[in-house]
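Deliverable D4.2, example record:
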Amino acid sequence: MSDTQNEFQNEEVKTEASEAMKEAKEAMEEVREIHEEVEELKEEISAEKKELEDFKNKFYYLAAEMENMKRRHDRDLQNNVKFGNEKILKGLIDVVDNLERTLQAIEKDEDDKVKNIFTGIDMVRNQFLDVLKSNGLEVIEAVGKEFDPNFHEALAQQPAEGKKDQEVILEYQRGYILNGRVLRASKVVVAKN
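Output generated by the structure prediction step:
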């Protein structure tokens, strides 16, 4: 082989090597671009995962809040059913009190007409109490019971033989409970020894 041929071959090898290097650089550039795209996709996926997690947390929070609202609504509804008639029952208690005062005023009268009136008023009072009881109202038992500030309001204390200390000995005004809640405390006199 001659020097010219050698030179020509060397030139060809250099050209091929140069082209291979150029192709390798282009391939490396493509790999780098693909790598950057993959990294960007990873970041997007990570951001979307975080956004999805945030939405999931918000969903669980709202679902729990809805459940709490439902429970509050149910509890309020039950309380409205149980205590919704409280105002009207308080007014009717005053009517019963007036009927009882009337009965006390005419109880000892000997006139037959007054006795008949007494019986009629007593029947109306009992009917009133039955209706109130059917609507959840109960009478607070006071006389003979130990004083309880949750159910009784002490108007006075007085000595009483044969009675325990703090025993209710007299009831001025009857107390009532509506579905477990004190509607009006009994006004009482308590024994003091």
